[in-house]
C-alpha cells in the first residue's frame, strides 16, 4: 500500500499543451487524457465559471447577455489570466479524476516568441491552479520531440508548428534551438480570413464555429481533387435575415491565400538564416510539419513548391507538442537543460 502511494505521487506529473484553440493534457504513465477546446463560459455578475472545454465551445455565440464566452488564450499567450486559471484548474482536476490530489509537476508548451512577462503569467496561472513545479518548454522543441526527431544529434532538424494562434518555425541541433522565428498567425487567423471573405463577397455574416467548420471541410493550400461545395448559413448584412449559400474549395483557398503566404514567408526567412552545414541536413531530412495547421490539405505540397525541400506530415501532428512535453516527464535531466529559464 505504501509503495502504491509513492507511485501515485510520481504518476501525478502532467504535460500540458496550452493552446489557443485546444488544450491537451498528458498524464505520466497514462498518455493523453484530455483534449478539449480552450474556451471558458462565465457569469457576468460574479465571474463564476459555468462551463469549460467542449461544453463551453458548444455555447460559443449562443449565450444570453448575463453569460459571456471567453477564449482565454490569444495568439498563443494568456489574454485573460483569471479565465486561464479556471481552465487549468478544470483540466488538472479532470486529468486526476478527483478533487483533491498531490500537487503535480507540470510541463507546459509555449510559443518560442513568448516574452518574459508572458512566461511569468503562464507560470503563475499554473501555480495558482495547484501545480508544484512548472517548467516551460518551447513548442517547436516539444513538437520535434513529439514526432521523434533526433534533436540530440549534431544535425539539422527543421520543425514548423502551426497552432491556433501562432506558427513556430525552428532549426534544432544538439538539444538546442539554433534559430527560430514565430509569427502570430495560425488557425484562428484562417478562420478570421474566411469570415472576412464571406462578408466581403457575399455580405454574409458567419460565426467563429461556422468559419472553423468551413476550414476543416473545404480548406486547402493547393489545388486538390475537387471537394463538393458545402452549404453555409449566416445572416445577410443587407436584409438582416438569415440566408444560405453554397461555397466551393477554390473560394476558401482564395480566402486563405494571404494567411498561408505569411507562414511560407516565415519558413523562407528561417531557411535563409540557417547555417550552411545544417541547411544541407534539412535538404536531406526535409521539413517536418506539426500542429493543427499541418492538416490543411495541400499545405505540404505548397511549401515544397516554394522551398524545393521535402515536407513531411507525421501521424497525428495535432498531439505532437503534448507528446513531446510528456516524454520529458521521464527525463528531468534533459528537461532542466532545454526548459526556458524564467529566473
What does the secondary structure layout of this molecule look like, with pairings?
Blueprint: H1 2-10, E1 14-18, E2 22-27, E3 31-37, E4 40-43, E5 49-52, H2 54-57, E6 67-70, E7 73-74, E8 77-78, H3 81-96, E9 105-110, H4 116-128, E10 133-138, H5 139-146, E11 157-162, E12 167-173, E13 176-183, H6 187-202, E14 204-205, H7 208-218, E15 230-236, E16 242-247, H8 249-272, H9 276-285, E17 287-290, H10 299-307, E18 311-312, H11 320-327, H12 332-338
Parallel strand pairs: 1-9, 9-10, 11-17, 17-18
Antiparallel strand pairs: 1-2, 2-3, 4-5, 4-6, 7-8, 11-12, 12-13, 14-15, 15-16
Helix pairs in contact: 3-4, 5-11, 6-7, 6-8, 8-10
Would you write up a description of this structure?
With 343 residues, the protein is of the alpha+beta class. The chain has three domains: 2-141 and 321-338, Nucleotidyltransferase, domain 5 (2-Layer Sandwich); 156-185 and 257-318, ATPase, nucleotide binding domain (Nucleotidyltransferase, domain 5), CATH 3.30.420.40; 187-255, Actin, Chain A, domain 4. Helices cover 39% and strands 26% of the residues. The chain has twelve helices and 18 strands. The strands form five sheets. The chain has a five-stranded mixed β-sheet, with helices on both faces. A five-stranded mixed β-sheet has the order 13-12-11-17-18, sandwiched between helices. A three-stranded antiparallel β-sheet has the order 5-4-6. Helix 8 packs across helix 10 (299-307). The longest helix has 24 residues, at 249-272. The protein is flat. The model is unreliable at 1-5 (pLDDT under 50).
Amino acid at each position: 500500500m505504501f509503495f502504491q502511494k509513492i507511485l501515485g505521487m510520481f504518476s501525478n506529473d502532467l504535460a500540458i499543451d496550452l493552446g489557443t484553440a485546444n488544450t491537451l493534457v498528458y498524464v505520466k504513465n497514462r498518455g493523453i487524457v484530455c483534449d478539449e477546446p480552450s474556451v471558458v463560459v462565465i457569469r457576468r455578475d460574479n465571474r463564476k465559471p459555468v462551463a469549460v472545454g467542449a461544453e463551453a465551445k458548444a455555447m460559443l455565440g449562443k449565450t444570453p447577455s448575463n453569460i459571456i464566452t471567453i477564449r482565454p488564450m490569444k495568439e498563443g499567450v494568456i489574454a485573460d489570466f483569471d479565465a486561464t486559471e479556471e481552465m487549468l484548474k478544470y483540466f488538472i482536476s479532470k486529468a486526476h479524476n478527483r478533487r483533491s490530489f498531490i500537487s503535480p509537476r507540470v510541463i507546459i508548451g509555449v510559443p518560442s516568441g513568448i516574452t518574459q512577462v508572458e512566461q511569468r503569467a503562464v507560470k503563475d496561472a499554473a501555480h495558482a491552479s495547484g501545480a508544484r513545479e512548472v517548467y516551460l518548454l518551447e513548442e517547436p522543441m516539444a513538437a520535434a520531440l513529439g514526432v521523434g526527431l533526433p534533436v540530440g544529434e549534431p544535425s539539422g532538424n527543421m520543425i514548423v508548428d502551426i497552432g491556433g494562434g501562432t506558427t513556430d518555425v525552428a532549426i534544432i541541433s544538439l538539444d538546442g534551438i539554433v534559430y527560430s522565428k514565430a509569427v502570430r498567425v495560425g488557425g484562428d487567423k484562417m478562420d478570421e480570413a474566411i469570415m472576412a471573405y464571406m462578408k466581403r463577397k457575399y455580405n454574409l455574416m458567419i460565426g467563429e464555429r461556422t468559419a472553423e467548420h468551413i476550414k476543416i471541410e473545404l480548406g486547402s493550400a493547393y489545388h486538390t481533387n475537387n471537394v463538393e461545395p458545402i452549404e453555409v448559413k449566416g445572416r445577410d448584412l443587407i436584409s438582416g435575415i438569415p440566408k444560405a449559400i453554397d461555397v466551393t474549395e477554390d473560394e476558401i483557398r482564395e480566402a486563405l491565400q494571404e494567411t498561408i503566404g505569411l507562414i511560407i514567408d516565415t519558413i523562407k526567412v528561417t531557411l535563409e538564416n540557417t547555417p550552411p552545414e545544417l541547411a544541407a541536413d534539412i535538404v536531406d531530412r526535409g521539413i517536418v510539419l506539426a500542429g493543427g495547421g499541418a492538416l490543411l490539405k495541400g499545405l505540404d505540397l505548397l511549401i515544397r513548391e516554394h522551398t524545393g525541400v521535402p515536407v513531411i506530415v507525421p501521424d497525428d501532428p495535432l498531439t505532437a507538442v503534448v507528446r513531446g512535453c510528456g516524454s520529458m516527464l521521464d527525463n528531468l535531466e534533459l528537461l532542466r537543460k532545454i526548459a526556458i529559464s524564467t529566473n
